[in-house]
Structures are given as structure tokens and as C-alpha cells.
């Protein structure tokens, strides 16, 4: 869980960037499925917020997360999530 939180510490990330550039290179035994389970738990716990791009607003807006179509979501830490960084 900490690897995902650290990856989100300075900006928003999507699943692909977490898998390819942040978590997996640092922790090669982590699979995409494990990263997804971690994101689901962090979102459910209020530590991470999911975002989708809104065509109407022309920006990313906070959204309910669903693992279906997860490639469309971006993720950022909430204030509760930032507390885990120490």
C-alpha cells in the first residue's frame, strides 16, 4: 500500500503510470491486480480520490471509482491519504 501512496505523493497518476513507472519498477513482485486492489481499498478508505475527465467542464472532476474501465481514472491523495506519508 505504501508504494502506491508514495507514487501519488506529488501528483495524480493513472493505473498505467502506477504499473509501468512507479510501483512495479520499485516493487517488481506487485502485479497490476494487486495495484488495483490497493487502489480500491484506498478509495474506499477515503485516502485516495478518483477522477474522470469531464468533457463539459474540460477538466478532471472527482468521481465514484469503479474498477470497470479503470484505465479512464486518475488518482490523487486526499488529506487523509497524505497523513500516511508521515
Explain the overall architecture.
The protein contains four helices and four strands, in the order αβααβββα. By secondary structure, it is of the alpha+beta class. It has a four-stranded antiparallel beta sheet with strand order 1-4-2-3.
Low-confidence stretches: none
Rg, alpha carbons: 12 Å
Q: Reading side by side through the largest sheet, how are the strands ordered? A: 1-4-2-3
Structural class designation? alpha+beta
User: Based on the structure given, which CATH architecture is correct?
Assistant: Orthogonal Bundle
* Inertia-based shape: globular
Oligomer: single chain
Helical fraction: 40-55%
Output the keywords:
4-stranded antiparallel sheet, alpha+beta, 4 strands, 86 residues, Arc Repressor Mutant, subunit A, 4 helices, globular
List the helices and strands and how they pair.
Layout lengths: L1 H6 L5 E2 H12 L5 H13 L3 E7 L4 E5 L10 E4 L1 H4 L4
Antiparallel strand pairs: 1-4, 2-3, 2-4
Kindly summarize this structure in a few lines.
The chain has 86 residues and is an alpha+beta fold.
Amino acid at each position: 500500500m505504501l508504494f502506491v501512496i508514495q507514487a501519488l505523493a506529488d501528483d495524480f497518476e493513472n493505473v498505467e503510470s502506477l504499473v509501468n513507472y512507479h510501483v512495479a519498477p520499485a516493487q517488481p513482485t506487485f502485479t497490476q491486480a494487486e495495484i488495483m486492489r490497493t487502489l480500491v481499498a484506498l478509495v474506499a478508505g477515503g485516502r485516495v480520490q478518483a477522477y474522470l475527465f469531464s468533457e463539459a467542464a474540460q477538466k478532471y472532476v472527482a468521481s465514484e471509482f469503479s474498477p470497470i474501465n479503470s484505465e479512464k481514472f486518475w488518482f490523487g491523495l486526499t488529506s487523509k491519504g497524505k497523513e500516511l506519508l508521515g
